[in-house]
Write a structure and sequence with these properties.
The structure holds 2 protein chains of 2 kinds. Chain A is an alpha+beta fold. Chain A has 4 helices and 6 strands. Chain A has a single domain, classed as Alpha-Beta Plaits (2-Layer Sandwich). Classes of the chains: A alpha+beta, B mainly alpha.
Chain lengths: 115, 413
């Protein structure tokens, strides 16, 4: 089954991180991505720019509305994701727990709707 | 006529013995618990229709499995739009191959671990096990857990859908995770037992049944994991409690506290089984909540021979439980035990150490324990106040009446 690991964290804290902390985080994510590749479970994954760069779009009554900012203001923000292919939820949860984002923030694990 | 009767009995017998095994096996790979239950219900209906004419098959379980599997295949094909229908059918085809062998693999333990998975809401784990392993319908479970049937039905449907959608595996966890996950399975079984046990008068057949079925589940886990001391400990604890079932009320239906129960009413055979299980558990490493609680029961049972419970041992066991669970409920029990060996003042001091835990405001055993200890120190006014709190919080009329009598007895001191 494929699962999306959504990485939520506190953007403001991230932006005020020291250079050493940023370097450590990069290294941790690098090692984690490498482990996912070696295990052959990674389908994809990216880091997102901060929510201040987000634009929201919706069409109501045939009119396109474009709004500046993220869909919802939350305490922790979506900062990136991994898409993995593993046998079951237990495997997905164990990969989620290993993600550096799980120690700094929260990971949401969502199964993909297979077509 | 006689043949129809025996066919019905064979079908019902197979239902009782095999229900959980067949659901577990049918759902293990597809994770489609609701689909397995529906298919199995149709297979039982087909058995009742066909066995009276054609006779009961040599292997009723295998017959039911084959029919149920075909029904599941039909149901998947009928779905207009279904994610992973092809995969679903392939998994069902694999099941057909394993039907060639005589013995159906026992996946019930794997199903229990799925039901008690951390991704399933804790409150629905016990009901989910009662339904999938034992075949209870939602209405019966709802009445046993004192919840509206529609609510219980919805929660069960949601939980089953979650097992499938989230991909919760049917697997007994590996050694490294086993003990952590087993606790959730045991807690769910104990929750079912406690629900059944709370009907002390034994007048509600459904809830009495619940206690017995929980013991059956506990026995199943203990037999499938005979080296897990906590599984043995839980079964021992439930059997100890069950052994005293009849002694909890007197002939008039009045509540009898444990230390005043007539030991002649305790069930010797169940106590013997419980003690043997606890001894077996102690041979393995891994002390835990259920072994300690079973050992407390064992120290109470000593009264059969010596006339008095081993209060010093009970105090030590509660001390260990306190360190393990950090639960104020354990501290209350320990305060009562300490009062037996060191006097009521020592017990009250321990109760006072709980401080202002707001949860205790509405917790009947705290106020009942406090009242009893205060009465023994002679502080009538404070004891009276505590009894009143306890009486106001108690739901069981027999216990309430007992507390009222205790309070009245204060005046006669």
């Amino acid at each position: 089954m494929q699962y999306l690991l959504l990485i939520y964290g506190n953007e403001t804290a991230m932006q005020s991180a020291t250079e050493t902390q940023v370097a450590q985080m990069h290294a941790a994510y690098g090692a984690y991505s490498e482990a996912l590749k070696k295990a052959g479970v990674i389908v994809g994954g990216e880091r997102l720019k901060p929510t201040s760069s987000a634009t929201t779009v919706r069409v109501a009554n045939g009119k396109t509305e474009v709004l500046n900012g993220p869909y919802a203001e939350t305490k922790e923000q979506l900062g990136g994701y991994y898409l993995i292919d593993v046998p079951d939820l237990d495997a997905a949860l164990s990969w989620a727990a290993r993600c550096p984002g799980a120690s700094a923030g929260t990971l949401e694990v969502r199964p993909i709707w297979a077509m | 006529m006689a043949q129809a009767q025996s066919a019905r009995e064979a079908a019902e017998g197979a239902a009782r013995r095999s229900y959980g095994k067949l659901v577990a096996f049918l759902a293990a790979r597809t994770r489609d618990v609701a689909g397995a239950e529906d298919a199995l219900a149709e297979a039982f209906a087909a058995a009742l229709a066909s066995w009276p004419d054609r006779g009961v098959p040599d292997n009723p379980e295998a017959w039911l499995l084959t029919v149920a599997r075909r029904k599941m295949v039909d149901a998947v094909r009928d779905r207009q739009y279904d994610e992973g229908a092809a995969e679903h059918l392939a998994l069902l085809a694999e099941l057909a191959e394993s039907e060639e062998s005589d013995a159906i693999p026992d996946e019930r333990l794997a199903l229990m671990f799925a039901c008690a998975h951390p991704a399933i809401e804790a409150g629905v784990r016990a009901p989910l096990m009662m339904q999938t392993i034992l075949g209870f319908d939602a209405a019966a479970i709802a009445s046993a857990f004192l919840i509206a049937p529609a609510t219980m039905g919805q929660r069960l449907v949601r939980a089953k859908s979650r097992i499938r959608q989230a991909g919760i595996p049917f697997r007994v966890p590996g050694q490294s995770e086993l003990r952590g996950r087993l606790v959730d399975v045991l807690d769910a079984i104990y929750a079912a037992y406690a629900e059944g046990w709370s009907d002390a008068a034994g007048t509600d057949a459904r809830r009495r049944n619940l206690a017995e079925e929980a013991i059956w589940l506990g026995g199943l886990v203990a037999s499938l994991l005979p080296q897990e001391p906590e599984a043995l400990g839980l079964l021992s604890l439930m059997l100890h409690a069950q052994a005293r079932r009849r002694a909890r009320r007197d002939a008039e239906g009045a509540y009898v506290p444990l230390d005043r129960q007539d030991v002649a009413l305790w069930d010797e055979r169940l106590i013997g089984e419980a003690e043997a299980l606890l001894r077996r558990a102690s041979a393995f490493d891994g002390i835990g909540r259920y072994q300690l609680e079973a050992a407390v029961q064992s120290a109470h049972v000593v009264r059969r021979r010596t006339g008095s419970a081993d209060w010093a041992a009970i105090d030590r066991l509660y001390e260990a439980l306190e360190a393990l669970t950090l639960s104020p409920v354990v501290t209350i029990n320990r305060a009562v035990a300490i009062a037996q060996t060191q006097g009521p003042q020592a017990g009250l001091q321990l109760l006072a150490s709980l401080g202002a835990d707001a949860r205790l405001n509405d917790y009947q055993p705290y106020w009942a324990a406090r009242a009893g200890l205060l009465a023994r120190t002679g502080d009538r006014a404070e004891a009276e106040r505590s009894y009143e709190r306890a009486i106001g919080l108690e739901r069981d009329p027999a216990v309430r009446q007992f507390l009222q009598r205790q309070r009245e007895a204060l005046a006669q001191r």
